[in-house]
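Hi V.,

You were right to ask for the full record rather than a summary. Here it is.
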Amino acid sequence: MKLKTLIVTIAILAVLSGIAYWANRPEAPAVSDPRIDKTLVDSSAIDKAAKLRLSDQGKTVVLSRQPDGSWRDESYYQMPADFSKLSSFVGDLSSAKIQRLVTTNPGRLARLEFKDTKIELLDSSDHPILSLTLGKNSDTGGRFVRYEDEPKAYLAGLNAWMDTEPKNWADAQLLNVKPEDVAKVEVAFDQAPTVVLSREKKDGAWTAAPTPAGQQVKADKVSSLLSSLGTVRFSDTTAPDDAQAAVAKKHVRTFKLTTFDGRTLTVALGRKPEEKKLKAVEKKPEPPVPAKTVAGAKPAAAEKPAEPEYDTIPAGPVYAWIASTDSKAGVNALMQKRSFQVDDYTFTGLPQKSDELFEPAPPPPSPAKGPADKPK
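Predicted structure:
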């Protein structure tokens, strides 16, 4: 082989080898995404947020921070937000970490079901500080997330429940009075005088006016009463002029709690009572009068009139009205916003008769015997 031919052959082989290496070269290692192993939401974004907006399946909840640091449920009549629920949700956000970058491929992004499920932190002008779109849950745990409209999907260790029912974020507790702070309680009854229970200090014994002869105040019953009245929670709300609430207000029982610091809280609970209505009786046609009566035959016995039947109309829902002598108490303004339904047991579990508040007093101790009383 001539030298020139050999050189050309070697050159061609070198080119082909280079092409083969280029075609089969290993991929360059991917650049690590700076978000991996970082928290899903930075704590500084949470600190700056004036509002939290949650959206899912056409429903939206907006919670707003107030100047005093409390939060309001803007989506449910500006009612105070349930701070414990909010704290739990924010805690889940701030503790969740980005586990890995899943894909930047548009086709794969579409399969991760990013729709309208969003978590947004907003400033006071409603401009987004942070916007997260949530996809489906991963089969291995966690949830797929996207920041803003970025063409990236991440897997985050997020297990927060996206509750977008506005009422569920409102603080349902209408009153929060500790039993040990109550100095006096007035208990009204439908067919008996109001019983006034009082004590001089927090750990003092309860006394009552009036107290039936041979009886004493039943301390555990009073404790149960105070626990129920001091932590009234609503189960639903209706308009202030709701017709059922107006009827319930005509059948209230009123309780008054006076605290050691001089506040008086009035709690009125009422419901439309159960009704019984007489059923309409269909008149039967009169039997025909026989043309002849056989001599000596006994007349037919008259039919016994049927017992009257009644339709029972159940009692209506229980409503609560609360007022405080403290002009700054939020419950006063709250009562102007809505009518508040409470669970039935809040009403039915209270003493229905005054004697439920009392129990037999122990007999007085026998006098100690002195020397003169000893047998001789």
